[in-house]
């Protein structure tokens, strides 16, 4: 587990072992490890049937290959994870995701895990280390300041648990921020692009009430005239007289359905 920004490595073997333990990879599991570095966490995944150990940095990858030469179940892969096709036999994912790609990669992981579960793959899950600020947004619930589109996406697709906060002092060299380990367990649901579109638009103005947030984000709707839109939305959404960041995901789904019925999206 290395961080791309300055390459920060966990210092304690006990911490690496603990994080690997959260994944609980056994002889029937196929693991995708994101950011394997030189194999400091990889060696604790040895009980897995197979480990795809993906590392972008060529120097670290060279060390990874050398360190894993006696582990036939580990397949080192020198690739950018955003361009890497997740193998279809994977049921568990682990890694430390760089902040700058946390959003697109997490969305991809959520979709992949759900597809695997829908297809009948057993014991599907992920254990990911994020910057704590990202993990806070991912696990936030309605009414919290960190509640966001990311929170909606995560809760729609999965059960998300923050397992452990890892202080900056646990890394060598120390980064400027703390980290957190998160476990993602997919629910096995299909995507709802209408919901995601509406949530993205509304959470751009999450401190405003529902109708006002939609009017201010009307570029996503099929009617652009503010007055006409208000005349439609006020009676349509009168039950949702609250600020956006207080909305439960079920309420967002209701709003999405109402907007669809009025052919506004």
Would you give an account of this structure?
Helices cover 36% and strands 18% of the residues. It is α/β, with parallel strands linked by helices and 265 residues long. The chain folds into two domains: 9-186, 3-Layer(aba) Sandwich (Rossmann fold), CATH 3.40.50; 193-261, Helicase, Ruva Protein, domain 3, CATH 1.10.8.100. The strands form two sheets. Strands 4-3-2-5-6-9-7 form a seven-stranded mixed beta sheet, sandwiched between helices. α3 (102-118) links the parallel β5 (92-96) and β6. α3 packs parallel to α5 and α6 (193-202) packs across α9. It is elongated, with a radius of gyration of 21 Å. The N and C termini lie far apart (42 Å).
| Helix count, DSSP H or I runs of 4 or more residues | 9
Report the mean per-residue pLDDT as an integer: 95
Uncertain ranges: 1-6
H-E string: EHEEHEEHEHHEEEHHHH
Query: Could you describe the largest sheet, including whether it forms a barrel?
Result: 7 strands, mixed
Oligomer: single chain
Number of strands: 9
Radius of gyration: 21 Å
User: Into which percentage range does the β-strand content fall?
Assistant: 15-25%
CATH architecture of the largest domain: 3-Layer(aba) Sandwich
Report the top-level CATH class of the largest domain: Alpha Beta
Q: How does the overall form come out from the CA principal axes? A: elongated
């Amino acid at each position: 587990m290395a961080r791309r920004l300055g390459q920060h490595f966990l210092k304690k073997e006990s911490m690496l072992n603990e994080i690997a333990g959260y994944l609980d990879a056994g002889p029937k599991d196929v693991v995708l490890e994101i950011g394997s570095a030189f194999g400091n966490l990889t060696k604790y995944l040895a009980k897995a049937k197979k480990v795809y150990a993906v590392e972008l940095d060529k120097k670290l990858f060279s060390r990874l290959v050398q360190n894993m030469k006696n582990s036939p179940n580990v397949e080192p892969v020198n690739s950018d994870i955003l361009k890497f096709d997740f193998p279809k036999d994977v049921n568990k994912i682990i890694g430390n995701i760089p902040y700058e790609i946390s959003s697109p990669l997490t969305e991809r992981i959520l979709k992949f895990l759900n597809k695997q579960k829908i297809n009948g793959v057993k014991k599907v899950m992920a254990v990911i280390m994020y910057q704590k600020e990202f993990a806070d947004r991912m696990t936030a619930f309605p009414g919290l300041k960190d509640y966001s589109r990311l929170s909606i996406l995560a809760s729609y697709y999965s059960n998300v648990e923050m397992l452990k906060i890892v202080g900056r002092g646990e890394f060598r060299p120390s980064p400027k921020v703390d980290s957190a380990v998160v476990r993602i367990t997919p629910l096995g649901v299909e995507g709802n692009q209408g919901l995601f579109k509406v949530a993205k638009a509304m959470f751009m103005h999450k401190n405003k009430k529902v109708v006002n947030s939609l009017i201010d984000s009307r570029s996503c709707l099929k009617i652009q005239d503010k007055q006409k839109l208000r005349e439609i939305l006020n009676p349509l959404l009168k039950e949702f007289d609250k600020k956006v960041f207080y909305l439960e995901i079920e309420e967002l789904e209701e709003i999405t359905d109402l907007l669809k019925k009025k052919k506004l999206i």
